[in-house]
Amino acid sequence: MNLDLFSTGSEPPVELEPGAVFLRGHALPYVDALLPALESVMQAAPLRHMETPGGFRMSAALTNCGTWGWTSDRHGYRYTRHDPQTGLPWPAMPPSFLRLAQDAAGAAGYPGFLPDACLVNRYAPKARMSLHQDKNEQDMSAPIVSVSLGIDAMFLWGGGQRSDPARRVPLQHGDVVVWGGPARLRYHGVLPVAQNHHPRLGAARVNLTFRRAATTT
Ligand SMILES: O=C(O)CCC(=O)C(=O)O
């Protein structure tokens, strides 16, 4: 993997393992453009708590933008072109989102990333995400670009099996984690978010996860 040492982030990329890179603060130069765009996305497709196939309510509220949106209900996990709540197409991916995703992917050694889905997760304090793989995408050759905004969180970086030990990676506002290639199907998750306050986002953490869901447009 070629790491682009001329990335816009102020700190050099850190390899978590082959194929997986942590970019401290890489999203910071984008935040002023990201936040109003995020508001527009959330107005068009409001945040909601989805149900898992097992009947549990997800503690993080979510929405999507892009051609495809990730959804969950009693029938399973899948990507849809329309928001099941409004019946409308998911809002378009804002240009600032796309620029950041492509910039971060390039800095992590994945040039030419063209995401068609951005899952927005909003964590209030105590919300969490259990260890899982991102495996509903058709195109596993593209990386995942995961952007953290707002209050801090502890990211869990696991292995190829759910039972593998997970490394704890503290994430702050503006941090980006990118994984693909041999690390594409690694288990990952988020520990319950601690009560905290962020000057731009209040008592919330927002994660933007960029993916290539389909092999064609
Ligand atoms: O919130 C995060 O940092 C991770 C989100 C995630 O794992 C996912 O959406 O699949």
UniProtKB/TrEMBL annotation:
Sample GO molecular function, one term: ferrous iron binding
Lineage: Bacteria, Pseudomonadati, Pseudomonadota, Betaproteobacteria, Burkholderiales
Keyword list, A-Z: Dioxygenase, Iron, Metal-binding, Oxidoreductase
UniProt source species: Bordetella genomosp. 7
GO cellular component, one term: cytoplasm
Stated name of the protein: Alpha-ketoglutarate-dependent dioxygenase AlkB
InterPro entries: Alkb, AlkB-like, AlkB-like_sf, Oxoglu/Fe-dep_dioxygenase_dom
Cofactor(s) demanded: Fe(2+)
Residues annotated as domain Fe2OG dioxygenase: 114-214
Biological process (GO), any one: oxidative RNA demethylation
Annotated cofactor note: Binds 1 Fe(2+) ion per subunit.
